[in-house]
Amino acid sequence: MPAIVPHQFSFSPNFLLFISFFSISGAKGPTVLVSGATGRTGVLVYRQLRDAGASPLALVRNVTKASALLDCGLCGVAQGIYEGDVTIPAGLPVAAFRGAEVLIVATASSTMSILANGSYPRAATPRLVDYEGTVNQVKLALQTGVKRVLYVSASGTSKPGGGLDMKGDPPGYVMMHHLEAEAYIMNAVLSVKGASFTIVKPTALLDSARGLAHLMVFHDDGPHPCPSSANGTYCETVSRDDVAEVLVVAATTRSKESANTRFGLSSDSNAPLPPAGTDWTALFAAAGDVVGGTHLRVGTSAELVSQLVV
How far apart are CA 212 and CA 221, in angstroms? Predict the structure, then answer.
């Protein structure tokens, strides 16, 4: 996969203008289902969607946790909050998917869940959550008429077998299963007329506020030199809040530029922020084609994995 020079963008200065479009014009944003909405990234996506005037639905494992994090009142079906287990197809709430126009998959396994004996919990392995759980959601979404799928993956999936893959005993192969999920999404979505996907692959995630750093869009899996650095410093972190904003704009604007893109996302906190705000069209245009400038050849998921590995 050829390397692409990162593009820089500052996010958030004009986000209030984006929000006000819905409130002033009376336009209704799309109905977006966020799975993993009580996770550290998912909760930010849900809140930003709500603030932007979209109609967010949430798929969560625990309504009590949702009540504490999502400010959703009674947090029941009437409020758009659905309980379900993504690892069990029969446990997914079909009504949530039928009511959605867009699905944002923010579910993910976590190395923090590794048990004292070194293993992942049996019901929360990367294979179950990151691959099978994603397949279950995307399959149901497409069956119920959802035409837009967004997926939070991770930078580094094109180079499986690294440190994160080796976490756990036995190893969980987190990156490999994210890569398989990416391939499944592209294959399944491109097989449905009128459907599209956006796969965002952030570098290491920070719990800082959005809009404080230039975002870097890239297609190679690093390392990524900081544009602001003259001594080869690498930029390998990005705010979860910035990641959430990218997903929200891609989900709600229905831009052609963000459709069928797969790209990495990092940030440079030392680069000066331009005052003009964000050019969203340019951001997603920079995201480019799904395979580093090479058009994707639709095939089996295994064939797609072979195209994506470098």
Answer: 23
> How many C-beta atoms surround the C-beta of residue 178 within 10 A?
28
CA distance 301 to 181: 9
Report which DSSP code applies to 280: H
Q: And the tokens for 111?
A: 């190395």
Are 54 and 251 within 8 A, CB to CB?
A: yes
Separation CA 141–CA 134 (nearest Å): 10
Domains of the chain: residue spans and CATH = 7-106+121-161+175-308 (3.40.50.720)
Asked whether the predicted pLDDT for residue 285 surpasses 60, the reply is: yes
The contacts of residue 231 (CB under 8 Å, 6+ apart) are: none
Q: What is the pLDDT of residue 287?
A: 82
CA distances from 306 to 1, 18, 166, 204, 302 (A): 11, 39, 20, 25, 6
> 211 in helix, strand or coil?
coil
Global confidence as pTM: 0.87
Whole-number Å distance between alpha carbons of 63 and 61 = 7
